[in-house]
Design goal:
Elements (H helix, E strand, L loop, with lengths): L3 E6 L6 H15 L3 E6 L4 H8 L3 E4 L8 H14 L3 E4 L2 H11 L7 E5 L9 H7 L2 E4 L2 H7 L10 E3 L6 H7 L6 H9 L4 E5 L8 H11 L7 E5 L5 H10 L6 E5 L4 H5 L4 E4 L9 H7 L4 E4 L15 E3 L4 H13 L1 H18 L2 H11 L10
Parallel strand pairs: 1-2, 1-4, 2-3, 4-5, 5-6, 6-7, 8-9, 8-11, 9-10, 11-12, 12-13
Length: 368
């Protein structure tokens, strides 16, 4: 019986979704399975996966029906005969679904959907794959607004967080460029770790920083992440006169080393099906301010384990940041309560067991 599991990812960049799939691969490997990641050659995803010691299958995924990618996947599926294949982005989902139907014994097709771009297609959820796993009840409810989507095809599986690894990573040194900037710019630190996309709310915090700067001249904001908004955000930093207060740091690895050094971790997204960095920060007992939107309220109990704020409301964010910095005892107590809460609800073991059970493979974990 094959123990191989195929993951596919056509996105070239690394964000929360991509790091979560690599986390799942590591957990499955520890459980005795043999995960392989099909991803674009020479992409950031391939680079990070190889750095983590994961097995990689280079596939170009140039479009949603890329015949060379389909042919490569079909050959690989026919040779390795995995029982389970997990897809993520649009291009790889379509190519994998076609390739799987060209082999005699196709794997169970499980799609991970962390957000829904545009209108949900009932056909893609009901027919393209066997099941879709979602990170939050919020996203499931959004999808079910289309009455043609079958509810039994949608399954909420909270992400599994390797809290032991985060704790170890928290003690690592910062990248030299980040540490040098911190040495030259000491002060209370706000941190946001997210893809550089418009919905992540970086603009809200930049404008809040501009408001706070006269009263908190030593306040610093480090933005960790990559993405299409990098150039625009750098221009905004200069426009707002925040060149000495804000660092656009790029990808920071391990990000836990940066989160652990923050006075506050921020999640100001306008749209977030669940979010990861606020969970990781709370696991280190670092205080969190996050948007009251999407699935984020499923991860934070407002006023108990963190604080929830209206997305895009610059005045509210500026006031909340100032209040949190002025009353560290309260936010530290909330962070400690959050640490207990997330360790209980977002364990890797629970995530892996749920994923395998959905594919009918749960009994095999005990044999690994």
């Amino acid at each position: 019986m094959t123990k191989t599991i195929l993951f596919t990812e056509s996105s070239p960049n690394v964000g929360g979704q991509e790091l979560q799939l690599m986390q799942q691969m590591q957990q499955l490997a520890a459980a005795g399975y043999q995960p392989v990641l099909a991803c674009r050659p020479d992409s950031r995803v391939e680079q990070v996966a190889l750095q983590k010691g994961l097995s990689v299958l280079p596939v170009r995924f140039s479009n949603s029906v890329h015949l060379p990618s389909i042919a490569m996947l079909r050959r690989w599926l026919a040779t390795h005969r995995p029982r389970l294949a997990i897809c993520h982005s649009g291009h790889d989902s379509n190519n994998l679904a076609i390739a799987a139907r060209l082999v005699r014994q196709r794997p169970f097709l499980l799609r991970s959907r962390t957000y829904q771009p545009g209108k949900a297609s009932a056909w893609s959820y009901n027919t393209l794959v066997d099941a879709t796993m979602l990170p939050s009840h919020y996203l499931r409810d959004c999808l079910l607004q289309n009455p043609s989507i079958h509810p039994d095809k949608l399954h909420v599986i909270y992400p599994g967080i390797d809290f032991d690894r985060i704790r170890l990573d928290a003690g690592a040194d910062l990248p030299s460029s980040v540490q040098q900037w911190r040495d030259a710019h000491p002060g209370q630190l706000l941190v946001q770790a997210a893809m550089l996309r418009g919905e992540k709310g970086h603009q809200t915090i930049l404008e809040a920083m501009a408001r706070l700067q006269p009263r908190w001249p030593q306040l610093r904001y480090i933005i960790a992440g990559e993405g299409p908004e990098a150039g625009r955000l750098q221009a905004e930093i200069q426009r707002l006169g925040l060149g000495e207060q804000v660092l656009l740091a790029g990808m920071v690895q391990p990000v836990a080393a940066l989160l652990a050094r923050a006075d506050l971790v921020l999640m100001p997204s306008s749209y977030e099906p669940l979010g990861m960095s606020q969970i990781e920060a709370l696991s280190l007992a670092v205080p969190v301010l996050a948007s009251r939107t999407g699935g984020i309220p499923e991860t934070i109990h407002d006023g108990v384990t963190g604080q929830l704020l209206p997305p895009g409301d610059v005045a509210a964010w500026a006031a909340a940041i100032e209040q949190a910095l002025s009353d560290s005892a309260t936010v530290q107590a909330q962070a400690r309560a959050g640490q207990t809460d997330v360790h209980r609800r977002f364990s890797p073991r629970s995530n892996t067991a749920s994923l395998l059970a959905l594919a009918g493979l749960s009994s095999e974990t005990s044999d690994s």
